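hiii so um. not sure if this is the right channel but i have a protein structure encoded as tokens and i wanna go backwards to a sequence. like what aa goes where. can anyone help
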């Protein structure tokens, strides 16, 4: 049949599984040996086969060959169906693989551009970090100088403030003493009289 021929053509283009090859080779050997037996028997053997088909071993061989032919034909149909499914998978699988490959390549390009951007951003951040470290060191140095200056000024202020507090206290006492002792004497002077 044309379907069987098409299957044979497909099988010729794709290697078969070892178990399928073995089954075909065994069937072929059996057919060849049966044909050899039939030829050896000649026409007289064939006449006997027709008369006693149930007990004749040759008839059993022929029946076995027919069963094997049916079995091989059924296996051929199953293999043809599997082949058709495989070809369908190849057709759709190729498209799916192509789409997956193109999507992966786009992701690779995107990832490499992201990596380049991240690398340049990292370099910029490292420069900024070095600049900030330098600024921080300068600020710490300035803070230390300012703290030292403030401590020096605080020491000077404390000393001067103590001196001033001492002088103010002394002046207050002096003024109080002068007011006690000089209160009456100021009124007795001519300047105080003018003021009155």
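sure thing!! here u go:
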């Amino acid at each position: 049949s044309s379907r069987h021929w098409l299957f044979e053509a497909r099988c010729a283009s794709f290697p078969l599984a070892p178990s399928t090859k073995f089954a075909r080779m065994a069937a072929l050997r059996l057919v060849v040996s049966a044909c050899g037996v039939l030829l050896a028997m000649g026409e007289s053997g064939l006449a006997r086969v027709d008369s006693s088909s149930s007990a004749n071993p040759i008839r059993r061989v022929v029946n076995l060959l027919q069963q094997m032919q049916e079995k091989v034909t059924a296996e051929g149909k199953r293999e043809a169906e599997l082949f058709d499914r495989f070809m369908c998978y190849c057709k759709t699988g190729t498209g799916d693989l192509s789409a997956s490959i193109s999507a992966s390549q786009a992701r690779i390009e995107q990832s490499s551009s992201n990596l380049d951007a991240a690398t340049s951003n990292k370099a910029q951040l490292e420069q900024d970090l070095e600049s900030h470290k330098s600024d921080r060191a300068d600020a710490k140095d300035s803070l230390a100088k300012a703290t030292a200056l403030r401590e020096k000024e605080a020491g000077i202020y404390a000393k001067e403030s103590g001196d001033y507090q001492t002088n103010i206290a002394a002046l207050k006492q002096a003024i109080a003493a002068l007011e006690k002792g000089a209160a009456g004497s100021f009124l007795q002077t001519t300047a105080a009289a003018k003021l009155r």
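oh and Residues 1-18, 43-53 have pLDDT under 50 and may be disordered.
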